[in-house]
Batch of 4 targets.
Target 1
Amino acid sequence: MSTMNSTMYLYSVQERYADAFAKNFTIVVLAVTILSINGVFVLTFFRSSIFYSDPRYILYIHLVLNDMLMVFISVILFMMAYVWQNVPLPFCVILLIIASTTHKNTPLTLAGMAVERYVAICKPLHHHQICTVRRTYILISLIWGVGVLPGLSDLILLSIVRPLSIFSTATSCGASILYSTPYHEVQSRFMNGLYSSVVWVILVFTYCQVLIAARRATNDKSSAKKAQNTILLHGAQLLLCMLSYITAVIDKMFVPLIPVDRARLTFFNYLLTNILPRLLTPLIYGVRDKHFYNHMKGLFSCRLFIVKVEAIKQ
């Protein structure tokens, strides 16, 4: 009986290690894929100076860079849950603030991109005066300023409800573990609802205004139609990004139904609501834009030609 128990325990440990390795391997592969694809868009932007003076592309590349940072930090936090159980709390708080900020920045950037399209179609004569490069960078600074507020409020609440000595301790690094008070739950719901409502109001308003402009237009209906489709795409992107808001809801709904596979359900829920949307949204928008796509294709076709010429010379 003792031999059988030890064998079963060894098998259970091996199974847990294999499961943990499979999850971390999957996450790392997806993260490398996302960072590589988005890195191509970033390289195209910085190698083509024509994009530097266009607020539309500046906001787009900010969206891509923000999502790259979010995926990087998210994967680090995921892996730390397995390999580093006692994380110094100040370091953990910094990672959580960055993760929270980048998470909030995505819908705010989509709202900014929708407003830019609204100005371009509904106020074309004033577009160059309103949407300048300088104001675009000011908007990006405001996005980061507004996006960091929920993370800072979590930290302030933690310092109020917990003794300050907690900052000299170590803990498992996770928002659900560190911010586990009822006050944090209320604050999280309020912030998520506020941010989502503001962004949706902006998207609906800009879409309706562009739709009206498209119907009134006589000469440039194609541009208005493209702007209308672009804002619709922003709405679809926002829906994908907002999947992360319902991660906890999905866990509460499905985990009790299959308690044995709780860890796997939570993992697939994390992939579906946090990782995969960051793979799809920049890719769809970047490839859909013909101007950006042509520059990206030209950049790599040029590199391929250079490689062929060097190979022939050798």
Target 2
Amino acid sequence: MVVNKCLAITTTRAISISASTTSPLLLVSSSLSTRKLPLSLSRPNPTTLSLNSSATRLVSFYTPPMNILNKLGFGFKSTPDPSSMENSSIAQGPDDDVPAPGQQFVQLGAGCFWGVELALQRVPGVTRTEVGYTQGFMHNPSYEDVCTGTTKHNEVVRVQYDPKDCSFESLLDVFWSRHDPTTLNRQGNDVGTQYRSGIYFYTPEQEKAAQESLERQQKILNRKIVTEILPAKKFYRAEEYHQQYLEKGGRFGFKQSTEKGCNDPIRCYG
């Protein structure tokens, strides 16, 4: 969840440096009027220091956000450099990766991709899963970029499956069961465009099956489904620590089974 905060600091001090002493001392004056300075989290905010000489210079007290906190889901997210979005035609292009012979791809977005991937790993006939980002405007985004909400990517699982052993409808059944398709850009406490519901197809047959499946689900639910059904676009594989995250133990080191047909409850964060 990305939170934008506008903060202001009220200051009543100016710092004066005396040039008449051998070791300059910082003298705080309390006689100046109060004024407000904006605190920016994306660029430095210079504060003017008044010197006894005629010179005036700007000094920045800006500290960049801590990347480690961002990766853990805390702190503020910096906005990606707009210049890094200049290759958006690549991001908006089709997925040019090729599945294994006789296999097919589909991309499914149903909230945080960790639990969705594990559920799909357990489906008989699924031969490979990868988590990543798609449907955005930025070429080669990072997890931090996606979390800003400005790149418009979605967290998805790209599933490779053998249609002889796994029907497309069985994948859709898992998809619908793993999330609430009626909440826009949100799954539980996970809020943002990267958590939207989406089916991203590679063939006309998949598109038709997805539309029919959505219509069946709509008859079951009493709220409007907001799942988007769109052609698959460029898939950007997520950082390695995201791959098979729950199978490897998640946050707490408790590995979860990927055995085909396994019905063990999925602990979404490990």
Target 3
Amino acid sequence: MRVNQFSHVKMRRPGPGNIAVNALLVLCLVGCFGPSLVSSITVNTPPELHASKGDIVTLSCTFTSTSRPTSKMSVDWSYRPQSGGPPLTFFHFSSRAFPPNDGQFAGRIRWEGIPARGEASILLVNATLKDNGTYTCSVRNPPDVHGSPTSHTVLTVTPKAPSVRFSDVAVLLAFILLPSAIITLILIGRMLCPKKQRSQSKAYRSPIEVTEGEEYGIHPPGAKEKGTSCCDLYLMDSEDEDGYYSLKKRPPMDEGYAESQL
């Protein structure tokens, strides 16, 4: 008769304490490796954006997901002012876009996203200085519930640099350059025309010194009357101008009358 050599070994059932330890180990393994084995999503936005007042700003947002986007996918954009405060959700997308109807961004948000390509961007039209702050893009695509579903970008809007308009240039030409050109032409004319030189003795002549014949505007024979040039008229003094025009207006006297006076 053979004796079983393992008859003295007794079978032991696991106690309640061992079951609890094993269950805890399983939960830890699921918690550590579960998210990586399931699915995850990652959202990316530029850290900073700069724009000028009145510009159209593209608030870029892209995402990668292990699951194909479905009708359950949603996108939310929120804004927190530069001065601080709680974030405010102003845009929502779920199968279609829901732009804001009131508030700061009413009528200024356009949906530019293409979920099939992993894009969830929006446009901010007519940027203002009040739009400075932090913008957050949040994308959810069930069953992707882990990873980095949100991303932030800081927008800085500055005043636009002044630009020169055509009307300003026209005013500048009319009130500055045109008078300068006229003055330059006058100075060039004075330089080209010789200055009228008169001796001090001819500057003033008394009525007694008037020679015979000149009293009646008759020049001696053989003397040619010198014509008045444009330069002489241009540089003529006011007194000379009065005498010149009075001489022109004096009626001519015939020679017979002049001889009778002699």
Target 4
Amino acid sequence: MSDVNKTIQKWHASFKKGTDFDSWGQLVEAIDEYQILARHLQKVQSAASADFTEDQKKTIGKIATCLEMRSASLQCTQSKEEFKLEELKKLETIIQNILTYNKEFPFDVQPVPLRKILAPGEEENLELEEDEEDGAGAAGSTEVLPSRSPASQGTLLPRLPSEPGMSLLTIKIEKIGLKDAGQCIDPYMTVSVKDLNGVDINPVQDTPVATRKEDTYIHFSVDVEIQRHVEKLPKGAAIFFEFKHYKPKKKFTSTKCFAFMEMDEIKAGPIVIELYKKPPDFKRKKLQLLTKKQLYLHLHQTLHTDS
């Protein structure tokens, strides 16, 4: 079997896994699977590869768009433009026969242009970030940020079902203080829970693009549901917050800084945590504060307990 056919087989397996989760009502798992597959397909669509023709890449991109639409429908139950599971399942044979498929695509969608999102630290090889103590100051006005990002709605997941004697944690990301807040384009936060070795424990979530900036603050005011009961989080785990923004000159999304919360900091109420220089150090071994200025990430924690 050729490498291309093996790739297509993996896509089909991932698609089937996602739709199975979806039909069983395991929505968190379905969303995760759909988003992983969509990212893979978008990378292939935008790559300069001879494995697929331009028409095939366009179809691959449209499949990725449908996966994102279904994922968005599962996250927003009140959406008027719901993309149903029955509709998504129509794409299964297209994925299996992508090399020979030559019919009209069943849905009126377009491939979402893939904005290059680099792995943590990868952008270090492409640029030197301006020093946080230098550069122009932030604008001192209130402004609504335009939503240019394809992923402007984020990938936030719903709260898990409650369990007797267990606690669930909702973290409201209120705002982040940055000297050059006014210059950040399409800012959003990636939230993850990692063990001592920096390995993901839960699905990674992206917030929607922030809607407002004011002086040296970018306001998010968004709730993130941690995807595991607090009592089930392993000892030494931490919740990470990576601040990302788009760089039009470089044409990629860059991690500007990060912050994290350790398990002993989980308690109801407001919390302010320090910002560290990129790349994110998920093992928490070599941490460098972003700035000497008093600029922080402002959060509010809510614990839900089913007694």
